[in-house]
Design a protein that fits this description.
By secondary structure, this protein is mostly helical. Helices cover 58% and strands 3% of the residues. The protein folds into four domains: 6-162, no CATH class; 176-215, no CATH class; 241-313, no CATH class; 318-393, no CATH class. A two-stranded antiparallel ribbon has the order 1-2. It starts with 5 loop residues before the first helix and ends in a 15-residue tail after the last helix. The chain binds zinc ion (ZN). Zinc ion binds next to loops.
């Protein structure tokens, strides 16, 4: 998991930050110079994002008074000088990572960072590292050395983002350093109780070893490449919208809306959540390590497939839950067509009190709304289901109504 030396992590941290500002945050504008693409950088924007670090190190700009990759490398060399040579050349170890985490947590606390230093996922660690970094006055040598250490932490978070691997059982990201995601892992890191972890693990094995297989293209869509990374980092750190941000969010909401099997897990209001709340919900309930907005649409589709498959593979409580969701969905559709509760119950072969129970438990808010609307405006109500059946059968001169009436005759 941990690779390279401490100095290399600091270097990765600084260069990733530089590239995120120039390419991801719009501080740089690509221009064509003699056939090669170079980035023209807005110095004020760049210095604001780097908290004046290059200027404080005496690097004002290199080449046509612009902050470019050459000046960034010069800054990196000076940052490395702030870390003692012995530390700089030492390999990143678990022990160093833990000591660094302690240091970051202490600094975050002292600086009064809201929420402290959050290392629960690579992207929260990245965000927290930058928050700590941006609070130091790099004009002060002492604080400059601290800032260099936060860049080590930043670099480690970037490496962890790039090294995320897919869960061996499903479509989620695995817990960093493990083979399985929190939903299937039996490790403590998953955050579930021992009993839940045991069941989750067995469920993952059972479902993933059935004939169901996730198509290989998931890997491609969900992955993050070097080209996309600067934009993703800029979005995380400064909220810079991605070029297709709005479209992506709409697509995610539509995907949730059209896959009702995912509603119980993601929440019935998920398709109506806006902006950050939508992504928070998906992180919380679907995949806590996902940070790439465009990966959600395929993940939701996979979740839908997975849940349906799980219901088939694992009959019992979970299967019952899925069957109930189906019925609620069918009932909601009938209510949308204007049918009243009694007719819906009859059509689905259930008791009207079952529908009342769903509503009382808050399991069918949409159905509740539609039924209440129907009561408020009985004039618009469609012809009763029973009277419709009677009429149809009367037309066909059928001698009597059939004993079981589960489906509406066409
Ligand atoms: Zn999994």
């Amino acid at each position: 998991m941990l690779r390279g030396t401490i100095g290399e992590a600091a270097y990765t941290g600084w260069i990733s930050l530089h590239v995120a500002i120039v390419r991801g945050d719009g501080a740089g504008r690509a221009i064509n110079q003699g056939g090669t693409k170079i980035f023209k950088v807005n110095a004020a924007h760049y210095l604001r994002r780097t908290c004046n670090l290059p200027a404080n190190l005496g690097i004002h700009a290199i080449g046509r008074e612009r902050y470019n990759i050459e000046s960034a490398k010069a800054v990196a060399d000076l940052i490395l000088m702030c870390i003692p040579a012995k530390t700089r050349g030492a390999p990143l170890s678990e022990g160093y990572a833990l000591a660094l985490l302690d240091f970051m947590e202490e600094k975050a606390r002292k600086l009064g960072l809201p929420g402290g230093f959050d290392a629960s996922t690579p992207f929260t660690a990245l965000k927290s590292s930058y928050s700590v970094f941006s609070r130091f006055d790099t004009n002060d040598l002492h604080q400059l050395c601290y800032a260099a250490l936060t860049l080590v932490s930043f670099g480690m978070a970037v490496s962890a983002l790039m090294q995320l691997t897919r869960c061996k059982r499903c479509f989620r990201w695995a817990i960093p350093g493990y083979e399985l995601c929190p939903e299937h892992s039996s490790s403590k890191e998953s955050g579930y109780s021992l009993e839940a972890r045991r069941l989750n693990y067995l469920r993952g094995v059972r479902v993933s070893e059935s004939p169901f297989r996730s198509p290989p293209r998931m890997r491609k869509v969900a992955g993050i490449n070097v080209r996309r990374l600067p934009r993703v980092i800029a979005r995380l750190l400064w909220g810079t919208p991605l070029p297709n941000e709005e479209r992506t969010a709409t697509l995610i909401r539509n995907t949730v809306r059209s896959n009702p099997d995912v509603w119980p897990l993601l929440g019935y209001d998920c398709a109506d959540l806006q902006g950050g709340a939508l992504y928070d919900r998906l992180n919380e309930r679907l995949d806590r390590y996902e940070f790439n907005p465009s990966a959600w649409v395929p993940k939701i589709k996979f979740l839908d497939k997975w849940l349906r498959h799980e219901a088939l593979m694992l009959p019992g409580r979970r299967g019952d839950g899925v069957r109930k969701e189906r019925r609620i969905r069918d009932a909601t559709n009938l209510a949308r067509e204007g049918f009243i509760q009694a007719d819906i119950a009859m059509s689905l072969g259930i008791r009207p009190s079952t529908i009342s129970n769903w509503i009382r438990r808050g399991q069918a808010p949409e159905l509740q709304r539609l039924l209440a609307e129907g009561r408020a405006s009985p004039g618009d109500r469609k012809e009763s289901f029973v009277s419709r059946i009677k009429r149809v059968f009367a037309q066909q001169l059928s001698p009597s109504l059939p004993a079981t009436r589960r489906k509406e005759p066409r």
